[in-house]
Design brief:
There is one protein chain. By secondary structure, this protein is an alpha/beta fold. The chain has 22 helices and 15 strands. It has helices at 4-25, 54-62, 66-76, 101-114, 144-162, 178-196, 211-224, 233-258, 269-274, 277-287, 302-312, 317-321, 339-353, 368-380, 385-388, 418-424, 427-434, 446-449, 457-477, 496-518, 522-541, 549-573, and strands at 39-40, 50-52, 84-90, 94-99, 128-132, 166-173, 265-268, 291-294, 297-300, 328-331, 358-364, 389-394, 397-401, 404-405, 442-445. Strands 7-6-5-11-12 form a five-stranded parallel beta sheet, with helices on both faces. β13 (397-401) and β14 form a beta hairpin. α4 crosses α20 (496-518), α5 (144-162) packs across α17 (427-434) and α11 (302-312) packs across α14. The protein is flat, with a radius of gyration of 30 Å. The protein starts with a helix and ends in an 8-residue tail after the last helix.
């Protein structure tokens, strides 16, 4: 990847450092001063294209006024052959640099050379990373939280792949433990109610009350009749749970496939229990001296593990006391392992058995208290969960329509599921909106999501791509195909909207880098809105068709570059890039 933003920043620092060394060699500035200077892009282009704090960072060590240092540096700057046409002093000692036409031409050359690969890098090459996301209980339809987690996980995986990582997408199926027993008990009650009457069978107080349970029980009855009426409870529960899961899991898979999400693996919790891997993991924790028995149960000394971790991290006794640390049960008095024990085993499997360098989980914010406990357990197993396990906590989603909170589907009259949502809005709209900043609560406006105007951001971006496709196709048919960058004079692109558009094209690589660094793929949404806006402004201000050949060619190449980058960014989001709308 050619990241022209990074190249420009590195060059500013190199030019400034070379100027300092030249000034120090002639005695104008003290020699041997190590300077840690920042290079930034000013918000106001009146202050140049790039700025450095070199003079201010060096002032104390050099015992000179920052503006005086900046003035000396300016006298020694050698910009020939660089990406910069000029530099000047501003404010208390900033050195502001202005880009030359060479940089703008090289941005267009980079987009053309890399094409569909523009924006990719090898930053994470050699790293094997698992992204686990959604992992909804298979006891009912997927809800809005699952819809958001699905997009965030899938898009983050795509972002990490652009950075060169070997990425694995996984869904963890919780098909064992208490929730499956509750699922079976709920199905059993509805099944027996069909046979004996609703008043004859009490429904479990903590059971699953949804209509989907009634539908599954009815389907079970239609297939098996009363053959399970008098069988032992355990056998009946096993049959009902198996029947329900065999229908729910394929439905989850088909809903997610419709949503544009495919997993490398659906990993079943039951496999960990059946293979003895949970028991083995708990034995390892016991061998490490991290468990104890109390009231017939086996406990993990979570509070001790976390206290040691927090002390190593520099937390004080007072800070640790406020955390109210507690221990966790791994194996109940009845001999059954807890969900936490299975979760530890599952993550041990990820690191120890399958060799992932890093694991990223997309969880709801309500799992916040579970993060440190799981990392601590992995630390106790010698797997360095503190540094190798990353958790992205996402906030809640509210569905809105015309300013009103929506809880029920217009079609079914029931709580809105992912399937219901995709009956109301397009997959493109759902994937765009749910890819908001993970740590921010979000409102999904159903009315806005189906609008076909510039107020709807996904429509606005897709329209920019379609408009470009139509423009380039029309001009090609008229005898003006897109020229290669080597055939144009990029110095003709001097209009402020042309310059702004090229800067936006360069910014794509940087936004992808930040999205991978921050585990925040919403960087791409915000970027694409900016790029679409820059294109629309360029297209309004700068005529293409009918211009003289040299300018027409330069603008055509710029338009083609914008189309490429829009398509690349939409592809990362899993949103289509239409050629006509």
């Amino acid at each position: 990847m050619i990241n022209m933003i990074q190249k420009a920043k590195e060059q500013v620092l190199a030019l400034t450092t070379a100027a300092y060394e030249a000034a120090a060699a002639e005695g104008s500035l003290p020699a041997g001063v190590a300077v840690k200077a920042a290079v930034e892009i000013p918000k106001d282009t009146a202050n140049g294209d790039y700025t450095t704090t070199f003079a201010m960072a060096a002032a104390k060590a050099m015992k000179k006024n920052p503006r005086e240092i900046a003035g000396i540096l300016l006298q020694h700057l050698q910009l020939n052959g660089s990406y910069f046409a000029s530099a000047e002093i501003a404010g208390p000692g900033f050195l502001n640099f202005r880009l030359s036409r060479t940089w703008f031409a090289d941005v267009l050359a980079a987009v053309e050379a890399e094409g569909n690969a523009y924006g990719t890098s090898d930053t994470l090459r050699g790293q094997k990373i698992m992204v686990e996301f959604v992992s909804a209980n298979p006891t009912g339809p997927m809800h809005m939280g699952n819809a958001r987690g699905g997009v965030l996980g899938d898009t983050l995986a795509s972002v990490l792949q652009t950075a060169g990582a070997d990425v694995w997408r996984e869904f963890y199926v919780n098909d064992a433990g208490n929730q499956i027993e509750k699922f079976a008990a709920s199905l059993e009650a509805r099944y027996l109610q069909i046979l004996l009457g609703e008043d004859a069978v009490e429904f479990p107080e903590d059971g699953y009350h949804g209509d989907d349970i009634k539908d599954l029980a009815r389907a079970f009855y239609e297939q098996y009749g009363d053959s399970y009426k008098d069988t032992p409870k355990a056998e009946r529960h096993a049959a009902l749970a198996k029947f329900g899961l065999e229908r729910n899991i394929p439905k989850m898979q088909s809903d997610l496939r419709k949503y544009g999400i495919e997993y490398d693996q659906w990993f079943f919790e039951s496999s960990l229990h059946e293979s003895g891997y949970v028991a083995e993991t708990v034995d390892k924790l016991t061998a490490a001296g991290c468990t104890y028995e109390k009231d017939g149960a086996l406990w993990l000394a979570t509070s001790r593990i976390l206290e040691e971790n927090y002390r190593r991290a520099g937390k004080s006794d007072k800070e640790i006391a406020k955390l109210d640390l507690k221990d966790d049960v791994l194996r109940r008095a009845n001999g059954f392992y807890t969900y936490f024990a299975a979760d530890i085993a599952y993550h041990r499997n990820k690191f120890e058995k399958r060799g992932f360098d890093r694991v990223i989980n997309i969880w709801g914010a309500d799992h916040h208290g579970h993060v440190a406990r799981l990392k601590g357990a992995l630390d106790a197993l010698g797997l360095d969960g503190t540094h190798r396990l990353d958790i992205v906590l996402m906030q809640l989603v509210r569905l809105m329509r015309d300013g009103e909170l929506v809880r029920m589907s217009k079609r079914t009259g029931k709580a809105i599921s992912l399937s219901d949502l995709l009956d109301e809005v397009s997959v493109d709209a759902a994937r765009w909106y749910f890819n908001g900043k993970p740590d921010s609560p979000m409102d999904f406006d159903l009315g806005l999501a189906v609008r076909e105007d510039s107020e709807n951001p996904v429509y606005y971006v897709q329209y920019a791509h379609a408009r470009l496709c139509n423009l380039l196709k029309t001009l090609a048919a008229e005898g003006s195909p897109v020229p290669s960058v080597g055939e144009i004079d990029a110095s003709l692109l001097t209009d402020p909207t042309e310059i702004a558009l090229i800067k936006e094209l360069a910014l794509y690589c940087e936004e992808l880098r930040l999205a991978a660094r921050d585990y925040d793929p919403s960087h791409i949404n915000r970027y694409l809105l900016g790029l679409a806006g820059a294109f629309h402004r360029f297209y309004t201000a700068c005529r293409i068709k009918g211009e003289e050949k040299a300018l027409l060619s330069a603008r055509l190449n710029l338009a083609a570059a914008a189309r490429t980058v829009l398509a690349n960014g939409l592809g990362i989001l899993g949103v289509t890039a239409p050629e006509k709308m």
